[in-house]
Protein: Adenylate kinase
Amino acid sequence: MINIVLFGKPGAGKGTQAEFLKEKYTLTHLSTGDIFRFNIKNETELGLLAKTYMDKGDLVPDSVTIQMLQSEVEKNPESKGFLFDGFPRTIAQAEALDAFLESKNDKITATVALEADDEILVKRLLERGKTSGRPDDQDEEKIRNRYQEYNEKTAPLMDYYKSQGKFYAVNGIGTIEEITERLSTIIDKF
Structure:
């Protein structure tokens, strides 16, 4: 079983790359963004709670995110592996994920970070916001707030996974194909 954590700042291309990787490696793609949007659209209790944070450009609290993610993993007992997209975002989430996977006699195989310059990413998100309908992609101040949250809470995950020998940084700038090839070079090692 291969379990990959794919992370990077909003707009770094996680969703785009996840589509290719899930097909190539037959992984179940678990995007916290997609899970949140599904729960929000269906007005679940957790979805309504998550929406209050997302509308302000804040990250959803760990307890809410973890409950949603565990539910999705439980729905896919026959999976050959998972591609975690946008999760974990904090050390507490990483520890909760490790404990959850360990309870299923499993573990994270590798963590891959798509890295890109903030200014390039801000432009990407503002462009995406013109068609996505997502309010958090249409306001530069909210975008920059998400990056500040990322830097404060998510960046420490690099050290967490480096200490386990599971962290790999990938240049997130280039064509989709170039970035996919960079990711595949790492994942093929497992």
The CA atoms of residues 93 and 150 lie 13 Å apart. The chain has a mean pLDDT of 90. The first helix runs from residue 14 to 25.
